[in-house]
Amino acid sequence: MTQKVNTQKQPNYRWGVASRSLSATLGGYALAASMTACLTLVLPMSRQNAVPAAAMLGYVGFTAAVIWSFSCSSAWKAWGGVLIPTACCLLVVWLKTGGLIK
Amino acid sequence: MKKTFRHSMAWLHTWSGLLLSWILFAILVTGTATYFRHEITRWMKPELAIPISKNAPAHAIQNSLMYLNDHAPSSENWFISLPGDRSGVSSLMWWNDESTETALIDPSTRQEIKPRDTRGGEFFYRFHFQLQLPYPWGRYLAGVAAMFMFVALISGIITHRQFFKEFFTFRPTRAWLRSCMDFHNVMAVLALPFYLMISFSALVIFMHMYLPWGNMALDKISAPAVTEESPMATPATPPQLLPFDQILALVEKESAGLSLSRIVIRNRGTEKADISLFKNNSKGLSSSRSNQLRFSAITGEKLPLEDLAADGVVGKISDVFYGLHLAHFANPLTRTLFFIMGAMGAAMTGSGMVMWTQKRKAAQLKKKRPSFGYLIVDRLNLASITGLFIAIAVMFWANRLLPTEIAMRELLEVKGFLYAWGLSLLHACCRPIGKAWLEQLWIAAILYLGIPLLDIATAWQWMKISISNGDGLFPLFDLVMALTGASFGWVAWKLATRQSKATPSVISTKTQEA
Amino acid sequence: MNSVGLILGFLTVAGFALSMKPHHQAILNRPLKDREKRCYQFAGVIAALVTFIYSVKTHGWDFGLTGAVIDLTIGGLLLTFLISYQPRAVVWLSGIGMAGLLCLLALPR
User: Fold this and answer.
1) Which of the four pLDDT bands, split at 50, 70 and 90, describes residue B512?
2) What subunits make at least 3 CB pairs under 8 angstroms with A?
3) Does the structure show a pLDDT above 60 at C80?
4) Which of A7, B42, B308, B374 is most deeply buried (CB count within 10 A of its CB)?
5) Does residue C62 have a pLDDT over 90?
6) Which of B168, B330, B340 sits opposite C83 (nearest CB)?
């Protein structure tokens, strides 16, 4: 029992938790936001349907980002797992709004 | 992060559950109260209890229109909320050039009723998504809380090892902490579909605020949707208002045989003058859009609804989420069941909060100084659970005791709520925590048990009318208050017994057993 | 949402509870046999189907599914507290519930 407490008090652990928390909250929101934008543009539905569908899937993505951030084996992986899909979504949004792809 | 996935999810559940639990508890309690906000408003405005004559429903439309014609003859836009099974008065609104005016009238006598200035049940409604904070920060905070709740639910599901084995299991006779855990699990598991729906639908309802990026991205590609000339535009020439008799005749003709909840008359001075009739919202889950009738006030021909009902599956799904969250469709029995499930949610959250401190109590008490976090959580728990209920009771007491003529009366009631809540936190910080819990529980018990007596003492004249109309509102409300008070008294008594029995060694063995 | 739905919900959860060892022991005061377990599970599933079908038939698809879930939730709430404090009452209430439903079925429409 005492050993467990000591591990938790080590600075590494605390930085890890802090990092994962940021990746879950800020990174998670970034993922949700970019997913919403990307899916709204990509989903083959009318505007009225695409917007709520994208937002709902965005919330699911947010939840997935949180769960991923706290279950993967390192804080780096947490950020990677959240930021890479975010970047992909943002790329699609950039391409679509720039008119580069239809 | 921890050794196993489940272990990590348990950690996540604890923290996502705890960090905003105090706000979530308040949201859940006020949100649950909101299911009966019209009833709470009627209780807080007892002057609305009017003798109902036999002709009231039949003449409500006519009297409402005639009142508007007498008092707002030159106003172009009239809004009428007709009496229904949740309100006996006609609620009228009209637009002048600068402002909106409202009035409540007795639908059978056309007399204006001036109830006391209070926000009534609307306070709970607004509070649960705005938290009495300035726009838009309250809504954002409530949204963050909803997201935390959703994550806590999902992580809780993943963590719960004995999901099916411990279904329906509540063992009040075991060690207290184990019983608390059972209670938390039972409250969580039984109404899990409801909680998932409530938290997710809360996020969906405000998606235009929390995730506006979809619309923004679309607006970058295509030009924003062209808005038609606003139907409320004032015409350049001085309006020739439609004669009242024409409006009355049209409304009566189109509404024959229908049970209406609202009537909206717009642009009486232009050719765009139209009348919208809203039927009583009964079965539909998607809120009101399919219950409208709209026709021109000039020609009487039917007009298309401008509020396009969502076509397409996803649009309908978000409508359904909206409808499920608000439960507009619910008859009294269903509404009561939603209320029960909301209360279960509050019980789930509260038991979780208390479990967090109780699990760590033995270890913390052994240390020279308990950790700051533990101390804070303990006190916040008290202020947030019992303190909130005390604050609500204080608001009800203020509603009955504050003189009706006083200025800013409704603000004073809200201030009573906020100050009582603040005082509860202060009390929790100043007193030894065990005593503080007991004292606040007893205060809550006395306040709630006192409400029926207060009611009879201060509002008997209206209670009489209401009861003689066959309306059970006052007795039922007072009964619920009394039951709440009795529950607090019971908990206080149990806690006092447990505290007097417990010695430090007994507490630590109990927690180890759990 | 009506009382028939609630009765059906209660019967569903009671059936499932009786198929679980600790609850069966608490309610009927004797251990659960394997064959009985499967019977109770089957009964629970049938009752669940009836709850959903009844709710959808009475209220339409819109509210029917929600109504059935509410029936099960509230039934489960009542059942859980009965098992803890008055387990025999589960037997009584199930019996009364079933009798009530049969009467309703037998009544001429």
Assistant:
1) very low
2) B
3) yes
4) B42
5) no
6) B168
Q: What ipTM is given for this predicted complex?
A: 0.91
Residue A84 sits in which domain range?
2-97
Which of B283, B338, B340 is nearest residue C62 as measured by Cβ atoms? Answer: B283
What is residue B312's predicted lDDT score, i.e. its pLDDT?
Answer: 74
Q: What is the rounded end-to-end Cα distance, in angstroms, of chain A?
A: 59
Instruction: Decide if A22 is inside a domain.
Output: yes
Residue A79 has pLDDT above 80, yes or no: yes
DSSP track, B8-59: HHHHHHHHHHHTTHHHHHHHHHHHHHHTTHHHHHHHH-GGG--PPPTTHHHH
CA–CA dist B255, B468 (Å, integer): 30
Cα separation, B509 vs B498, in Å, equals 14
- Is B1's CB within 8 Å of A40's CB? no
pLDDT digits (tens, 9 = 90+) for C84-103: 999 999 999 999 999 999 99
| Angle in degrees, CA A23, A28, A31, rounded to 5 | 120
- Token pair in block for residue C19: 């198929």
Q: CB within 8 A of B474, min separation 6: which ones?
A: B43, B46, B49, B455, B459, B462, B463, B466, B467
Q: Which among B251, B252, B255, B254 is positioned nearest to B268, based on CA atoms?
A: B251
Q: 């506006």: which residue's tokens?
A: B212
Chain B residue numbers touching C83 (CB-CB < 8 A): 168-170
User: Taking the C-alpha atoms of A17, A22, A23 and A26 in order, what is their torsion angle to the nearest 10 degrees?
Assistant: 160
CB distance B83 to B92 below 8 Å: no
Cis status of the peptide bond prior to B332, with omega within 30 of 0: no
Q: Return the DSSP state at B233.
A: P
Would residue A102 count as lying in a domain?
A: no
Give the closest residue to B40 by CA, choosing from B413, B403, B444.
B413
pTM for the full model?
0.87
Structural domain count of chain A: 1
Q: Which helix (H) or strand (E) holds B274?
A: strand B274-279
For B309, other C-beta atoms within 10 Å of its C-beta total 14
Task: Report C:59-88 residues touching B (Cβ under 8 A).
Answer: 59-60, 62-63, 66-67, 69-70, 73-74, 76-77, 79-81, 83-85
Taking the Cβ of residue C50 and every Cβ of chain B, the question of whether any pair is shorter than 8 Å is answered with no
The dihedral through the CA atoms of C12, C16, C17, C19 has a sign that is positive
B-chain residues near A63 (CB < 8 A): 150-151, 154
